[in-house]
Amino acid sequence: MSDSNQQRLGGFMTSVSTTQMKSFYEDMVTARVYEERLQEEYMEGKTPGFDISAGQIPGELHLAAGQEAAAVGVCHHLRDEDTVTAPHRPHHIAIAKGVDLKRMTAEIFGRETGLSSGKGGHMHLFDPDVNFACSGIIAEGVPPAVGAGLTAQKRNEDSVGVAFLGEGAISQGAFLESLNFASVHDMPVVFIIEDNDWAISMPKERVADSQDGSRRADGFDMPGIRVDQDDVLAVSEAAREAVGRARDGNGPTVIEVQVHRRMGHFMGDPETYRSEADQEAHRRRDSIERLAADLRSHGVDDETLAEIRERAESRVEEAIEWAKDQPKPDPEDAYDDMWVNPPSGVTDTEPNFDLAGGDD
Amino acid sequence: MAQQQRQTVERTRTMSDAMVEAIATEMRENEEVFYMGEDVADYGGIFDSTEGLLEEFGRDRIMDVPISETSYIGAAVGAAQEGMRPIAELMFVDFFGVAMDQIYNQMAKNTYMSGGAVNVPMVLTAAVGGTYNDAAQHSQTLYGTFAHVPGMKVVVPSTAYDAKGLMHNAIRDDDPVAYMFHKRLMGIGWLPAPDGPKTAVPETEYTIPFGSADVKREGDDVTVVTLGLHVHRALDAAERLAEEGIDVEVIDLRSLVPLDEETIRESVDKTGRLVAVDEDYQSFGVTGEVITRVVEDDPGSVEAVERVAIPDIPIPYARPMENEVVPDSEDIQEAIRATEP
């Protein structure tokens, strides 16, 4: 990042209110506590020997501890009517977007009252009330986010589409094609690359030509910016400009954010491909601690920070307790929700005409 | 309304005219409907699927897109989830391969995976079929491929009348619909259609339900179940066999999802003999499915079964070889005769 950007960031940091910073902090801590608690709940019943199909949360679980700054720094600029698509590691983004935490948790536990009635699981969370969706295949959520931008454009509304993806997704066709489509039509879209250094076991330098994913924007004639610090205030500054640009009809932007992966790719990942030093480095670079220090320097005392943390913890606890109390779906429910209209469409009646020459 | 007065509809249209008429009517009535695809604006669709629409609706609603099927079909999914009613066109169904993730994993599944919290009211139109020597990458129908994954309704018109009513239903449906039109039936100047697809078409709007097969020809001896171009080839075969005293019933499925099992079974109960015909690959496809639905329901209902489809090879280029593998009237006649006791 250039010096001029650093200066701009410095200027902005003083303009973020303490109230807003506390709000960032609360969302970030909520997301972190959520992942830590889910990890505990997930492991219950899966040991010894780790059986991925056992326990109260079945299936894969991709946790996002260490990536909170990207989600919170971006989503605080969004409204409910703005659409966000997230990838397979979605919880922090969902929390920042305001997804119903209880129903999201119930979905992760596979309960009937979950966001997707237990049919989706943690990679397929849909909350139309806040226009959030996530999906499990790399970069596949990017084109639908462009579709949301296209919709805003066609309806002459000032809402935006935001696609989150990992740095491992920047070579995927769905992403590159979407950059072009969005740029050709100056669509109100923001692409957020969360760079946690690892595409499962593959470090970025082994699979991407450029180490700065925001440079993907260069070939598509749109602005690209890399936020080199895992700092929610820096992310917020970049996102404010990009979201504003989109809202005001001035086209799409790519932002890459340096984040950190504090856990494995999925729960149960032995991370044998990753050095202890790297794991330690990721844990040490904590955007939440960084924000706490900023808050303290703005005169927020430890007691206030502790109160925020307690509030986040009890919100998470409440969601988990609620979810675990929810009924499991009936096996027969598997056959519901195939269609929203009858299979025959909007009619079940054959029209009745006398056609010259017959229909034959 | 006109049909209550039972006036005979005399006005004839090509299949492409009928499709376009339905699209235009829906676009006039609902400003959330728009069409996007490659060469759909100034060109009017390579196979005339949007002929004339640009003039009335402009580039915002008849929208050329980058050659980038993943992005625009995926964008259609996103727009549909926002409540718009996009129609996205795959110029050739064969191009599905570059966008199948968006089709198979989002368009088809998001309603179910969200427990019905979101739905995807879009139409995916695609030109299908061979018979004009366009070789293995531009001649497939892929009916089975599209009907195989749960979550899309799959529609295949064979006449102008059906094309219009099915298109109205497809656009109004809140579920995703794959609308597969056969190039040979559209009535394009450079790709002459057989007699048959150009039919009387009411000027008024009307909807034809999905899952409602149409008996295109009644007969007592043998049931032929087919769709698309092969409705017309089966009708031709039936006329020729009538001279031999074989009375063939021809059922046009009109949709694969849902599949009208009842009409097929009723016919087979009458004839006891079943020939399934299509223009897709034979294995794991439509013909096997149609026969299975009959047999698993009542193995005793059918005395003889035949199927006619593309043998399990890619579609070859040179005319003699393509003609060999794409079923024609003679192939169908032969299969029908083979069911005779």
From TrEMBL, chain B:
The keyword Transport does not apply. GO terms for biological process: organic acid metabolic process; sulfur compound biosynthetic process. GO terms for molecular function: oxidoreductase activity. Keywords: Oxidoreductase, Thiamine pyrophosphate. Residues 13-188 form the Transketolase-like pyrimidine-binding domain. SUPFAM superfamilies: Thiamin diphosphate-binding fold (THDP-binding), TK C-terminal domain-like. The keyword Oxidoreductase applies. It comes from the Archaea. InterPro entries: THDP-binding (IPR029061), Transketo_C/PFOR_II (IPR009014), Transketolase-like_Pyr-bd (IPR005475), Transketolase_C (IPR033248). Its cofactor is thiamine diphosphate. NCBIfam families: PRK09212.1. This is Alpha-ketoacid dehydrogenase subunit beta. It comes from Halovenus carboxidivorans.
